[in-house]
Amino acid sequence: MGHRRAVGALIGLSGGTFLYTTAEALPIGLLLPMAADLAVSPSQVGMLVTAYGAVVVVASIPLTALARRIPRRRLLSALLAGFVVSTAITVFASTFALLLAARMATAATHALFWAVVVPAAAELFRPGLRGRVVAIVFAGGSVALVLGVPAGTWLGERAGWRVSFLAVAGLGAIVLAAVASLLPSTPPNQGHAARGATPDVYRFWLLVAVAILTTAGAIAAYTYVALFVTEVSGFSASSVGVILLARGVASVLGILAVGVVVDRSPWLALAATVALQSVALLGLYTVGHRPTAAVGLLALAGLAFAAFTAVLGGVVLQVAPGRSDLAAATVSAAVNVGITGGALVAGLALPSHGVRSTVLLGALLGVVALMMVAGALTGRRATRPDDGVSGGSLGPDNERSGAGADESRGGGVEPGDVARPGRDGPGVRRAAGHSRVGPDRARLRGALHSYLPGHVR
Question: What is the 3-state secondary structure (H, E, C) of the chain?
Answer without folding.
Answer: CCHHHHHHHHHHHHHHHHHHHHHHHHHHHCHHHHHHHHCCCHHHHHHHHHHHHHHHHHHHHHHHHHCCCCCHHHHHHHHHHHHHHHHHHHHHCCCHHHHHHHHHHHHHHHHHHHHHHHHHHHCCCCHHHHHHHHHHHHHHHHHHHHHHHHHHHHHHHHHCHHHHHHHHHHHHHHHHHHHHHHCCCCCCCCCCCCECCCCCHHHHHHHHHHHHHHHHHHHHHHCCHHHHHHHHCCCCHHHHHHHHHHHHHHHHHHHHHHHHHCCCCHHHHHHHHHHHHHHHHHHHHHHCCCHHHHHHHHHHHHHHHHHHHHHHHHHHHHHCCCEHHHHHHHHHHHHHHHHHHHHHHHHHHHHHHCCHHHHHHHHHHHHHHHHHHHHHHHHHHCCCCCCCCCCCCCCCCCCCCCCCCCCCCCCCCCCCCCCCCCCCCCCCCCCCCCCCHHHHHHHHHHHHCCCCCCCCC
